[in-house]
């Protein structure tokens, strides 16, 4: 009878009838896949945690920098500085405008004086040597008066010709000394003096 047989043999035959070897292999493969998947998930979790820590450190640094910037920045001082700079800008613009107007006026005056000087130079060189010498002296005196009225004092340095000029700025209280070497044209020297004014 069936029950007279050895139970181990019965169990062995029963196991053989069920053919569970493929199922065991499938379970082993599933366990291996689960283990690999768990390792991959653990790796991704560690990478995410590392990235999160790095971002947290960056955020802390940025917050500290932001707090420090806010504590050192004063909106009142900034507004005051902007207002001061605006005031300076308008003052400089007005001064530049005034200087431009004055420059145009002085340019016109210089052109008139140069025309007058040229007219006087072209006048009467007739007569003898004495008369001519008297005209030259009068011409030099006139030029010296014109230069003096502009704040220019011509000076002689060792010779007969004037080769140096002292320019005084009455409003600023400054003195400039300009030297001429005789190589430049009269037009250049006149412009040079004018710019030095």
Automatic annotation (TrEMBL):
Q: How does it assemble?
A: Component of the NDC80 complex.
According to its UniProt entry, what is the function of this protein? Acts as a component of the essential kinetochore-associated NDC80 complex, which is required for chromosome segregation and spindle checkpoint activity.
- Gene Ontology MF terms in the entry: microtubule binding
Q: Which UniProt keywords apply?
A: Cell cycle, Cell division, Centromere, Chromosome, Coiled coil, Kinetochore, Mitosis, Nucleus
Which residues, by range, are in coiled-coil regions? 96-123
| Bilayer-spanning residue ranges | none
Family assignment from sequence similarity: Belongs to the SPC24 family.
Task: Write down the superkingdom of origin.
Answer: Eukaryota
Question: Could you mention a single GO BP entry for this protein?
Answer: cell division
Q: What name does UniProt use for this protein?
A: Kinetochore protein Spc24
């Amino acid at each position: 009878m069936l029950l007279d047989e050895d139970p181990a043999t019965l169990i062995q035959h029963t196991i053989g009838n069920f053919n569970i070897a493929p199922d065991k292999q499938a379970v082993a493969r599933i366990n291996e896949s689960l283990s690999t998947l768990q390792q991959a998930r653990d790796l991704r979790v560690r990478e995410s945690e590392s990235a999160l820590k790095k971002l947290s450190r960056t955020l802390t640094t940025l917050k500290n920098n932001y707090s420090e910037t806010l504590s050192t920045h004063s909106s009142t001082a900034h507004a005051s500085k902007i207002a001061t700079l605006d005031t300076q800008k308008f003052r400089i613009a007005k001064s530049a405008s005034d200087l431009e107007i004055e420059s145009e006026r002085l340019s016109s005056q210089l052109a008139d004086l140069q025309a007058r000087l040229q007219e006087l130079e072209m006048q009467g060189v007739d007569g003898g040597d004495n008369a001519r010498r008297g005209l030259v002296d009068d011409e030099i005196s006139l030029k010296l008066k014109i230069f003096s009225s502009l704040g220019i004092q011509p000076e002689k340095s060792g010779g007969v010709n004037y080769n140096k000029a002292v320019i005084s700025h009455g409003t600023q209280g400054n003195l400039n000394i300009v030297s001429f070497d005789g190589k430049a044209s009269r037009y250049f020297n006149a412009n040079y003096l004018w710019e030095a004014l």
